[in-house]
Amino acid sequence: KSVCLSASLSARTEPIGGTLQYGYNLAIMNAPTTFIQTFINETFLERWDVQLEDYQVTLVWTVIVSIFSLGGLMGALIAGPMTIRFGRKNCLLLNNVFLMTAALFAVSSRASRSFEMIIISRFLVGISAGVSMNVQPMYFGESAPKHLRGAISLSSAVFTAFGVVLGQVVGLREILGSEQCWQYLLASNAIPGLIQLVTLPWFPESPRYLLIDRGDKEACIKALRRLQGCSVQSCELDDILQEQAETKGLKPQTPWQLFTERAVRWQLVSIVITSSAMQLCGNDSIYFYASYVFKESGIPADKIQYVTIGTGACEFTACIVCVKRKGRRFMLMGGFILMTVWAIVFTVALCLEGYISWMPYLSMTCIFTYILSFGMGPAGVTGILPTEIFNQTARPAAYMIAGSMMWLNLFITGMIFPFLVSGLSAFCFVPFAVVCLLSALYVGLFLPETKGKSLSAISREFHKLNYKGQDGKRGSQTQAEYQLGEAPLSTTV
Known about the structure:
Number of strands: 0
Radius of gyration: 23 Å
CATH topology of the largest domain: Growth Hormone, Chain: A
Number of domains: 2
Distance between the termini: 23 Å
CATH architecture of the largest domain: Up-down Bundle
Shape: globular
Helix content: over 70%
């Protein structure tokens, strides 16, 4: 019962200042939209005696919203080098420098009469979210034992969804979503960061980082004892020692090296596709479209903010109750297939809204089921894949690539979604349905199952794809031994 006690506690507290920030900072920007746009117009009028046109205000507002994604992209790019230099835990602690600076800019923006400070704040908080979205799943994946790796890593997705719900609740007009308090709403992300700064130092560093990157076996065993709350299980230490032997003499790899290395070709393709599909599936875009559908369903405008909370609650609930006894392939493929079905139903409902009175309610139902399907699979599984299919030397670079694809596609989707709505109208979710269907096909055909398997076993399955038709012909012997897990253990337990 005491196995992974500390890891479980860490999984419940550390994400408060980690992946929660991503969901939270997405959600809190909805409530103050009108107030910040008014502030932008007033600032221009005071400074230059210029009254902005509506499209100009919208343009500045778009910059404020989209700069978060660009900050996240930068955070994903610097996360890899930071984890190598400072370690997983220290990287998460240092990441709060970006967050606290962002909160300071946000809370001071109104008094300073500077909308530029809001832009800087959103960029910095994007960097913080980009780092945490990469490092936190890596930290959990390296700290958890094989049989609990998925469940503990799932907490990252749970807290991301919880961040959305929390941001929607805090953004209510009765709390911080009013005209008088919007600057405090934008700065409220500092509170989860403070909680992380207080709690995370009490937890150990990643055992794999301590042994493989730093070569400190004693610190690794000590960390395992703290994580497990009991004596170290030999199978867990064996797994880390085996990975150490397989990566002996190898330096941390760069993203470019992964792109040019055939031995990890299909691993790389897998994380690029799944990370891109996370955003290109339109799940985040559907949050923005929810208000329109709720309005069409006859819900009063002053009540829509309360109903919208249900969209975040759907993903949060799905992440919690999702049955993780199923494998990664099953959850990913099942989630994407269900999302494809609901996107098609959603399209049909939108086409028939003018002919059948109850169709708007079907559209509203599709929103919830689409988000539920996303929470059942892609939301929880995608973040753990780089940990399971790449070794210690390649893992930081793999997370840099995965995070970059996620943030880049979030930016692209956010920018083109309004044009999809205006250009395709009722068919705006057809592209998302195509993305989900293609993603499900790829997972079903090419992604090996990783649940409960060692890195060596997973590598053997990918090796068949990477060197298909080569009749045993491989790259360098060192890389081949790493991939197949054939290197002998140099250290005994």
